[in-house]
Amino acid sequence: MSNVINFPNGKERITFKRNIANTKRYNIFKSILQLVSKAIYGILFTIRLTIATTLHYSFCVSLSILNSMNVFLFFFLGLCCIINYFHLDRHFISPTNYATPVFVGFWILSCAAQHIVILIQEHMPFHRIMKVVRNTIPIQTEHNFQSQYY
Question: So where does this one cross the membrane (predicted)?
Fold first, then answer.
């Protein structure tokens, strides 16, 4: 009986073995490259998540502190505005001193801080900017507070 399958001999056999070795190396390199790319993607995702969470917490905490000192800021910054008004010869702003508008801005920010924190908590803008959260999050239009208690 003769062989049904013709196996390569000589130079053809050497090139065939080289092709098999190259294919094995290519598959190993491809799997290593996939692992490395997944690791890099995971590290970058963790960095983006950390940055977004840090920005979220820092803004919410600073606005909560401003909101808690709303009454104090009203009286203290109001007193500073009056002192600054008389210091600037009965003007609110001078070309080198913008303290009064900054004081008023801080007070307005402290009044609106609670609503801004609620807005930040609902919409998660820093997480969306960093592409950590999908942009298709359903936004709650009506608050059903009774569902929390039943």
Answer: 39-59, 71-88, 100-120
Per-residue pLDDT tens over the stretch 15-39: 888 888 899 999 999 999 999 999 9
- What integer pLDDT is reported at residue 95 of this predicted model? 82
pTM of the model: 0.68
Residue 107 CB partners (closer than 8 Å, separation 6+): 70, 73, 74, 77, 78
CA 150 to centroid of chain Cα atoms = 34
Number of Cβ within 10 Å of residue 124's Cβ equals 16
CA angle 40-45-50, nearest 5°?
A: 130
Delimit the domains of the chain by residue range: 11-136
Three-state SS for 4?
A: coil
